[in-house]
């Protein structure tokens, strides 16, 4: 980076930090994007003249609200609910809801900001948003989850709509929670519309939506590997998380002939040297989705290694798929992965690698697919769910999967187009950021100063 661009970056980031104090994840996400976009903006002064960077980093609207609910003992509980409506230049706000005790404004702003670029990359007409609450679903009864979801939607419903803002799931929000929230929306608004995605198949959901993020991440990794005449066949894969994204990343890795060997949760990770096969995956799905147990139980059942309070990046692998949460892979982990021979990292989670870890991946020239490109399959199929809802016509599994695959291939092409460097190395960070930025920025200019 030239010294003048470096100076502009520092100046811009100082303003972002001053204006958004304490929001470290938001600063991190903005820095990563602005760092790769600034040189492009310097070459295209219209974006500078229209102050697109200043505008795109300022949410269009933030809604913060009280969520009161009664637990099973009849005691009053209070949580904080959020919806960040970040950018609607290319479509209604779209992005998931996260229920997790760590949720705060900075985390949701980082996720909403990333979502703007990710949604643009899919080529579907979706703006960017994100929301959630600092509610911890762990250990809660179904009844308590329902009470919370109903109270959350009682306020959120006045801000969303099928043409305004269409939330989906994220950490802690799966089919069960989407069902409770959809029911409450319908009850209050008296309308059956595609206001949420990730719905059940019998009531407006799309086939392949549960699988989409994990499958899409593997499809994207596959495209990256093709550039080096490589494939998943016979490769060892290290995966973090054991929720929605991780489960289907395992499933698709297996289908392509690879051997997934790890899974984790916030308590620790398991290492299965024989590989997590179809049968073991079914066990994990039942454990996590129905019994809502800890991943440690896998180690007890199959007699494999369990490491408490640790992440799986020290295990030897060819491919790493971080699928749990932000900043779960740091510089030491990155160095360890590369030393152990890992040459592909595709992010199923949002911003799982720290800035220092990303720097190491780029420096070492491995295939590194950032979340906003690699995990865009989830929101892409959410976009397809919206299309099917508008048409009132469901598509087959094959049709949705085919469209998902095409979208991931196209995102890869966009990354190549904007990310290829003089020596032929594809910088997917740069490619995804510039590729996602152009369409949104041009739409913002076309729509005037709004
Ligand atoms: P789930 O709630 O289904 O699973 C999350 C997994 O990550 C669980 O195994 C959970 O463990 C683990 N985890 C959560 N927080 C932490 C933490 N602080 N430290 C360690 N482990 C943690 O969520 P998803 O699978 O849907 O989401 C995973 C990631 O993928 C997130 O970054 C999300 O933003 C991203 N993503 C999801 C999409 C989707 O369609 N669902 C789309 C695009 C991105 P535990 O059970 O112990 O909490």
Polypeptide structure, described:
With 450 residues, the protein is an alpha/beta fold. Among the domains are: 61-193, Rossmann fold; 212-369, Rossmann fold, CATH 3.40.50. It is built from 17 helices and 13 strands. It has helices spanning 3-19, 24-43, 45-49, 52-56, 105-121, 142-156, 175-189, 209-226, 244-255, 278-290, 296-302, 331-339, 355-364, 371-374, 377-391, 397-419, 428-446; strands at 61-70, 76-87, 93-99, 128-133, 165-168, 236-239, 259-260, 262-265, 268-271, 305-308, 319-321, 344-346, 367-369. The strands form three sheets. The chain has a five-stranded mixed β-sheet with strand order 1-2-4-3-5, with helices on both faces. Strand 8 (262-265) and strand 9 (268-271) form a beta hairpin.
Task: Identify the notable features of this structure and list them briefly.
450 residues, 13 strands, five-stranded parallel β-sheet, alpha/beta, binds NADPH dihydro-nicotinamide-adenine-dinucleotide phosphate, 17 helices, Rossmann fold
Helix and strand topology:
Layout (H helix, E strand, L loop, with lengths): L2 H17 L4 H20 L1 H5 L2 H5 L4 E10 L5 E12 L5 E7 L5 H17 L6 E6 L8 H15 L8 E4 L6 H15 L19 H18 L9 E4 L4 H12 L3 E2 L1 E4 L2 E4 L6 H13 L5 H7 L2 E4 L10 E3 L9 H9 L4 E3 L8 H10 L2 E3 L1 H4 L2 H15 L5 H23 L8 H19 L4
Helix pairs in contact: 1-2, 2-5, 2-17, 5-17, 6-7, 8-9, 8-15, 8-16, 9-10, 12-13, 15-16, 16-17
This protein binds NADPH dihydro-nicotinamide-adenine-dinucleotide phosphate.
